Amino acid sequence: MNKPLIPAQRRERIQEYLEIHTIVRIGDLSAMLGASEATIRRDLEWMESEGLVERTHGGAILTERTLLEPEYLQRAQRSPEEKRKIGACAASMINDGDIIFINAGTTSTQVMRHIRGHAGITVITNNLTAALEVGAAGFNLIMLGGDFQPTSNATAGRFATENLNKVYASKAFISVDGFSLKYGFTVPTNAEAEIIGCMVERTHGVVSLMADHSKWGVVSNFQVAAIDQVHRFITDDKISQHALDALAARSIEVVIAGESASRTG
Question: What global pTM score does this model have?
Fold first, then answer.
């Protein structure tokens, strides 16, 4: 008969499993480690208190922390097809006459690339990359001034927020660097979080948050919205069923880019 594992050994095995699979259920861990479900729950509680995992109903997901903002080109190379689909899906929700807030980020850039053939559309953004690419795209473009942020190729700071506080938008499309049930939607810098906060506050219509499937369980430094504050979330078809079930349980409308219908909780 195998000798039972001590708590440190069980937790190490759980961590190793999550680093490979990202998501795990308590029943599977109980069978794998030969421990009761009550014991596994205590292990997960301890690991959550240490910031290693985030417990969910019936299991846990790996907590992945993003402490620094990656360079814009690095971000652009990650999940490019998923970001393209999300951008096209978001752009399809824009109607003639809309005034739109779009923040910085590679997914947000894709939204602007796909805005075509609309009358009287105005986009207000701090996204310098997108602005340079779509200057002749056939819609009105208002750039926020402010302090240049080289890692994100965007503007931020007091000058930018003061300009935002003078306008309102009918819709907003906000890309984020991480989302989880416990920590909500997060970005790496306070400067970008302040911009997003102003955009959300000054939008009188639907605010859509966007992230590809790889951002599930990722926690960055600054929260821009709690899970329960979000009405619509746009992602790609590689998102896990576990994530979809968790978001549906919070009554969040999840729109899968590339699918004809959204999945709504």
Answer: 0.74
